[in-house]
Design goal:
The complex is a heterodimer. Chain A is an all-alpha fold. Chain A has one domain: MetI-like (MetI-like fold). By secondary structure, chain B is of the alpha/beta class. The longest helix of chain B has 20 residues. In chain B, strand 7, helix 6 and strand 8 form a beta-alpha-beta unit. In chain B, the strands form 2 sheets. Chain B has a 6-stranded mixed β-sheet with strand order 6-7-8-3-9-10, with helices on both faces. Classes of the chains: A mainly alpha, B alpha/beta.
């Protein structure tokens, strides 16, 4: 135990740096995935037929293939098309594009649940389609989606670990380095497991707080009734 | 000489091969309260939605004042501002307070400044007797209160015509009265209204004309006295008799 704590202490600075990178990857991937995912969800719900088909195709493609394959295609594959991206950029892109497919499905479900009747109500007072989406449907749909969507940031945080395979210096990469230096893989990986766990707990608390903060009295009951 | 606000000519609506209604002709004059009655599935609600362009008719014309709103290129959003709609299930914006529900159209559609919108929204809530509930969310209001907010939301846009689609059908019996009272006052104030309802007491007392629809067409149209005491068709008498009996029972319960 003392030995393990020693290892932890020795690499603490490294782990903190790695955790920072991991959080950055999560945040960027999540944000990119959210913006693109929201667009996909809206396209799939309100778009014309051809746009719906594109959105569906995108979602099926990115959910149907491993993230690691997507990451390698971006980092090792794109250069053959003349597009060379840095390791960090490739990681951001792969995580964001992949997360978008999942987030689109969380959001689409909520948007459809709020659906047509609220669209009709909004249009009835003269709001345009887009105004209704913006001021009526999304504020409700995002609240409705939040509890299930909260899986995504937590899942993404742990998924970022694969980027060490293209040598991004995230938490996982730091663990590998510690393992190589100390010849103590179990201790090293256990140490970062603890760090991941702390990050997930913190993130979970943040999400629960956001859920409380955005709650509207009587809203959940009402959506069930409609 | 009464001035027609809304003129419906040969209006037809189909879903696929299923004809919802056909060749509906109806003239609504300024200040009129028209009550539309008829068995369910006769196209009454669809007719209202067509008038508000929430559903596109397949044939015929609708004129609002001197403007054909069914014409190609008519500005739907603009038309809807002038035609208020009250829904059976209220359809309030559940993430907004009562006041914000009424205010949304004022700021986003009419582009009123914040203070003016606030004042106007509060005035509309006062009109339906809910000024003290301004900060409540729909989930914290009774059905009757929600429907009154729905009415205030539509009124805030200063519509030329108000459409009511079975406004009390989703309400508990003891909450119906407060909504009907608001509607009665509106009618007395001279608001032009088309009301789809089964509330025969309201129809008798408030309607200038009652329109009886069945199987997608207007069977008979006339003053309440005409329809209740001198119906031209046996079918009208039967329907009114049946509905009045139901309504009477409900009233006895209160």
């Amino acid at each position: 135990m003392a030995e393990w704590l020693g290892l932890f202490q020795r690499f603490l600075k490294d782990f903190i740096l790695g955790a920072g990178t991991t959080l950055e990857l999560t945040a960027v991937g999540l944000l990119m995935g959210f913006l693109l995912g929201l667009g996909l969800a809206l396209a799939k719900t309100f778009g014309p037929k051809w746009l719906r088909a594109i959105a569906t195709g995108y979602i099926e493609l990115f959910r149907g293939t491993p993230l690691l394959v997507q990451l390698f295609l971006i980092y090792y594959g794109l250069p053959s098309l003349g597009i060379t991206l840095s390791q960090t950029l490739s990681a951001y892109l792969a995580l964001g594009l992949n997360s978008a497919a999942y987030q689109a499905e969380y959001l689409r479900g909520a948007i459809q649940a709020i659906g047509n009747s609220q669209m009709m109500a909004g249009r009835s007072i003269g709001l345009s389609r887009w105004q209704t989406i913006q001021h009526v449907i999304l504020p409700q749909a995002l609240r409705l989606a939040l509890p299930s969507w909260s899986n995504e940031p937590i899942s993404l945080l742990k998924t970022t670990a694969i980027v060490f395979l293209i040598a991004v210096q995230d938490l996982m990469a730091k663990a590998k380095r510690a393992a190589t230096i100390t010849y103590n893989p179990i201790g090293s990986y256990l140490a970062v497991a603890v760090v991941y766990l702390v990050l997930v707990f913190a993130l979970d608390a943040l999400l629960k707080w956001a859920e409380r903060k955005t709650k509207i009295p009587g809203f959940e009951i009402n959506t069930k009734r409609v | 000489m009464p001035k027609p606000i809304l003129t419906i000519k040969k209006l037809t609506k189909k879903y696929g091969n299923n004809v919802i209604f056909h060749d509906i002709d109806l003239v609504v004059n300024e200040g009129d309260t028209i009550v539309v009655i008829g068995p369910s599935g006769t196209g009454k609600s669809t007719l209202l939605r067509c008038v508000n362009l929430l559903t596109k008719p397949d044939g015929g014309e609708i004129w609002l004042d001197d403007l054909e709103i069914t014409a190609k290129g008519a500005d739907e959003d603009r038309v809807r501002q002038h035609i208020g709609m009250v829904f059976q299930n209220f359809l309030l914006f559940n993430h907004l307070t009562a006041l914000e529900n009424v205010k949304l159209g004022l700021t986003k559609v009419k582009h009123l400044p914040e203070a003016a919108a606030h004042e106007k929204a509060l005035a509309e809530l006062t009109r339906v007797g809910l000024a003290d509930r301004a900060d409540h969310y729909p989930g914290q209001l009774s059905g009757g209160q929600q429907q009154r907010v729905g009415i205030a939301r539509a009124l805030a846009m200063d519509p030329r015509v108000m459409l009511f689609d079975e406004p009390t059908s989703a309400l508990d019996p003891e909450l119906i009265g407060e909504v009907l009272e608001v509607m009665r006052n509106l009618s007395l104030e001279g608001m032009t209204m088309i009301v789809v309802t089964h509330e025969m007491g309201f129809a008798r007392e408030v309607a200038d004309r009652i329109v009886f629809m069945e199987k997608g067409s207007i069977v008979e149209e006339g003053t309440p006295d005409d329809l209740f005491y001198r119906p031209k068709y046996e079918r009208t008498r039967e329907f009114l008799w049946k509905i009045t009996e139901l309504y009477g029972k409900k009233e006895a319960k209160e």
